[in-house]
Write a structure and sequence with these properties.
GO terms for molecular function: L-tryptophan 2,3-dioxygenase activity. Its cofactor is heme. This is Tryptophan 2,3-dioxygenase. The protein is an all-alpha fold. The protein has 15 helices and no strands. The longest helix has about 30 residues. The protein is globular, with a radius of gyration of 24 Å. The termini are far apart. The N terminus is likely disordered. The protein binds protoporphyrin IX containing FE (HEM) and N'-Formylkynurenine. N'-Formylkynurenine binds next to loops.
């Protein structure tokens, strides 16, 4: 032992001394793996190709991590919607800010899957049968919470009672946009009664009467700051959502070209049409009305 051991021990070996205070006995204590239930999480990757294809693990983990993030996106968006209902605008914006970061991560993550070549994917695509991301109920619930409702999307979940319950609840609840418009009405903005009383189970469609309301907000941002800020946060959400859809489409094009999808759709052409969907059309239309 040298007199400098306290600071230099292990440095030459490129190892770090574990401090004596570090807890090592977890026989009777909460541990990392126990808290996170890692045995469950890490036993949920079960490739089914035989012999097992090297890249199937990538395919599974890409989907599972997306589903985990979607779970949090849904949690945050539902909370944001409830906070808008309670006129807690600042707190709602905090949730939306978090969702925006998750969306960026999800969009960026496509580059990992893009390392899967067409030939590699073709070697195990067959085992997927008719499974498809089209059957992601969390993805569909996020679309619903953002207002793009479509009751027909519940059809594919008929054999899955818990997915149906989750989606039916999202279908029948007012969307984030519905609650924002109700908040604006409470704040004195002239939101038409037809908007406030609409059937919230239907997809939101372009409502021209709202454009002058937003034109007033965008025409004097200082006077309408909190409404304006929320509008721009919603535009960010839609923008990010579309970027994810675009990267999905482009990844699909490079991996399966124009092959039909395992879910039974035409594949890339079907995904391309999703780029025409919009959550907050009036927030885009208002831009045309800005003088100049
Ligand atoms: C090799 C990679 C992938 C390919 C070739 C692919 C292909 C497709 C195709 C062709 C569809 C249309 C439905 C069908 O007929 O199957 C679809 C839908 C979908 N996929 Fe993927 N996908 C891939 C990866 C992913 C990943 C990683 C996710 C993340 C969860 C995902 C989520 C979705 C979702 C949510 C839909 C429904 C989209 C909509 O309704 O517009 N996909 N995918
Ligand atoms: N629809 C894809 C298959 C696919 O990507 C997939 C299969 C099972 C579980 C999730 C999937 N992801 C997205 O559609 C295809 O047509 O190749």
């Amino acid at each position: 032992m040298t007199e400098h051991e306290g600071v230099s021990d292990g440095v030459a070996e490129n190892t770090r001394t574990i401090e004596a205070s570090v807890v090592t006995d977890f026989s009777d204590r909460m541990s990392y793996g126990g808290y996170l239930d890692l045995p469950t999480l890490l036993s949920a990757q079960r490739p089914i190709s035989r012999p097992e294809h090297h890249d199937e693990l990538l395919f599974i983990i890409q989907h599972q991590t997306t589903e985990l993030w979607l779970k949090l996106v849904l949690h945050e968006l539902e909370t944001a919607r409830d906070l808008l209902r309670a006129d807690e605008l600042g707190q709602a914006l905090k949730c939306i800010a978090r969702v925006k970061h998750i969306q960026k991560t999800l969009t960026e993550q496509w580059s990992v899957l893009a390392t899967l070549t067409p030939a590699e994917y073709a070697q195990f695509r067959g085992v997927l049968g008719n499974a498809s991301g089209f059957q992601s109920y969390q993805y569909r619930a996020v679309e619903f919470v953002l207002g793009n409702k479509n009751a027909k999307m519940l059809q594919v979940f008929e054999a899955d009672a818990s997915a149906t319950t989750l989606l039916r609840h999202a279908l029948e609840s007012p969307s984030l946009y519905d609650e924002f418009l109700r908040l604006l009405a409470r704040a004195g903005y002239p939101i038409p009664a037809s908007v406030l009383e609409r059937d919230v189970t239907l997809a939101w469609t372009f409502t021209p009467e709202l454009v002058p309301v937003f034109a007033q907000i965008y025409g004097d941002t200082a006077a309408h700051w909190s409404a304006y800020e929320t509008c721009e946060e919603l535009v960010d959400l839609e923008d990010n959502f579309q970027l994810w859809r675009f990267r999905h489409l482009k990844t699909v094009e490079r991996i399966i070209g124009s092959k039909p999808g395992t879910g039974g759709s035409s594949g890339a052409p079907f995904l391309r049409r999703a780029l025409e969907l919009t959550f907050f059309p009036e927030l885009y239309a208002v831009r045309t009305e800005i003088p100049g």
